Amino acid sequence: MTKKTYICWLGISAAVMLALPWMAATFIKGDGGMAACFLLFYAINPIYSVIIGAFAGKDRKHLWGLPVISAILFLIGTWIFFDMGEPAFIRYGVIYLALGAAAMAVSSIFRNRKSERNSKALS
User: Fold this and answer.
1) Is the pLDDT reported for residue 61 higher than 80?
2) What is the pLDDT of residue 121?
3) How many angstroms separate the CA atoms of 88 and 56, rounded?
4) Do residues 3 and 64 lie in contact, with contact meaning Cβ atoms separated by under 8 Å?
5) What is the C-alpha separation between 109 and 91, in angstroms, rounded?
6) What pTM was computed for the model?
7) What does the angle CA 88 – CA 52 – CA 24 come to, to the nearest 5 degrees?
8) CA–CA separation, 84 vs 10, rounded Å?
9) Under a CB-based contact definition with an 8 Å cutoff, are residues 105 and 52 in contact?
10) Where residue 1 falls among pLDDT bands split at 50, 70, 90?
11) CA atoms within 13 A on the CB side of 20
12) What is the pLDDT of residues 4-13, one digit of tens each?
């Protein structure tokens, strides 16, 4: 993978994990803000963690840091825009990291099995 691809994924991670919480805290007030946070914490962020983990599984040796950086950006974003030092956000970050790591492992295993099948078919 190229540096450009890595930087692109870092930008997407910053947008999802920093910009979306900022937008929820800044522009949506009251119960709507709470609903937006639930949507972020229980749908968007976990799905994004799985997606970035699956992508990182394509080249685990070079891209292993993407799920880690994504979880760290989540923690930074929530602490800045919601409540600094809140331990519940650490739990969410660990869960997102675990989801990303699991998706990376599964993606890597399937990729390795596919390449083994292709090499057996060629020989």
Assistant:
1) yes
2) 67
3) 26
4) no
5) 27
6) 0.88
7) 50
8) 23
9) no
10) low
11) 20
12) 888 999 999 9
Rounded to whole angstroms, what are the CA distances from 102 to 34, 51, 72, 112, 114?
29, 11, 17, 15, 18
Give the N- to C-terminal CA distance of the chain in Å, as an integer: 27
Strand extents, DSSP E, 8-75: none
Distance from C-alpha of 45 to C-alpha of 33, rounded to nearest angstrom:
16
Token pair 């950006």 in the structure block, residue: 73
Name the token pair of 54: 């699956």
Stretch 26-52: mean pLDDT, rounded? 92
CA distance 50 to 68: 12
| Tokens 């870092």 -> residue | 10
Single-letter amino acid, residue 55: F
User: And the tokens for 75?
Assistant: 């923690």
Q: Give dist(CA 49, CA 69) in Å, integer.
A: 10
pLDDT of residue 103: 97
Q: What is the mean pLDDT of residues 88-105?
A: 96
Pairwise CA distance, residues 28 & 38, whole Å: 13
Residue bearing tokens 């078919």: 121
